[in-house]
């Protein structure tokens, strides 16, 4: 598994608890990178998804919570074409180059309504153009016993 937009590794930690092994991470925030380095010792960290040209051999899953600043109600609401949230296109670029069998994307549920669901259309069109079958769910952290409501959209796609 390669994790991009890894932050402090929440998605990657969950995936590792489910049996996946991180073989590379990508994150540009220096504070988050220091947490990744402590929690994922020995795993290479690339610092800019835009300059990442390859995925390591053995990457069967490309996972990432791409930036939400342009999709969130608390953000600029520029939509999927915004400077930050538009970086999801880098995940599709990498998946195309590496022919990754699985992809998992995560973001805020406002993306489903913003601009009449344009983000959903862009993401699902990209999945289908690359030959992926996909499904999505909105998941709330409270459903897993946590005292905080944190709803997120998860996409899972398979070649």
Could you explain the architecture of this structure?
- The chain has a seven-stranded mixed sheet with strand order 3-2-1-4-5-7-6, with helices on both faces.
- The protein is built from four helices and seven strands; from the N terminus they run βαβαββαβαββ.
- The longest helix is centred in the C-terminal third of the chain and has 12 residues.
- It is of the alpha/beta class and 159 residues long.
- The radius of gyration is 15 Å and the shape is globular.
- The model has no long low-confidence stretch (mean pLDDT 96).
Coarse morphology = globular
Gap from first CA to last CA: 15 Å
Structural class: alpha/beta
The number of helices is 4
Overall helicity: 25-40%
List the strand order in the largest sheet: 3-2-1-4-5-7-6
Q: List the uncertain runs.
A: none
Mean pLDDT: 96
Determine the strand fraction and express it as a percent band. 15-25%
> Helix and strand string, N-terminal first?
EHEHEEHEHEE
Counting DSSP E segments of at least 2 residues, the number of strands comes to 7
Largest sheet properties: 7 strands, mixed
**What Rg, in angstroms, do the CA atoms define?**
15 Å
């Amino acid at each position: 598994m390669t994790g991009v937009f890894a932050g402090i590794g929440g998605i990657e930690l969950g995936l590792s608890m489910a049996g996946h092994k991180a073989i590379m991470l990508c994150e540009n925030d220096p504070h988050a990178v220091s947490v990744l380095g402590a929690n994922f010792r020995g795993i290479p960290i690339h610092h800019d998804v835009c300059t990442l040209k390859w995925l390591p051999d053995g990457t069967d899953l490309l996972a990432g919570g791409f930036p939400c600043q342009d999709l969130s109600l608390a953000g600029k609401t520029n939509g999927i074409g915004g400077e930050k949230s538009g970086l999801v296109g880098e995940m599709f670029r990498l998946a195309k180059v590496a022919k990754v069998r699985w992809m998992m994307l995560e973001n805020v549920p406002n993306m489903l309504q913003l601009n009449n669901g344009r983000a959903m259309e862009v993401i699902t069109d990209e999945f289908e153009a690359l030959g992926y079958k996909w499904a999505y769910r909105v998941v709330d952290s409270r459903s897993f016993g946590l005292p905080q409501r944190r709803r997120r959209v998860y996409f899972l796609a398979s070649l």
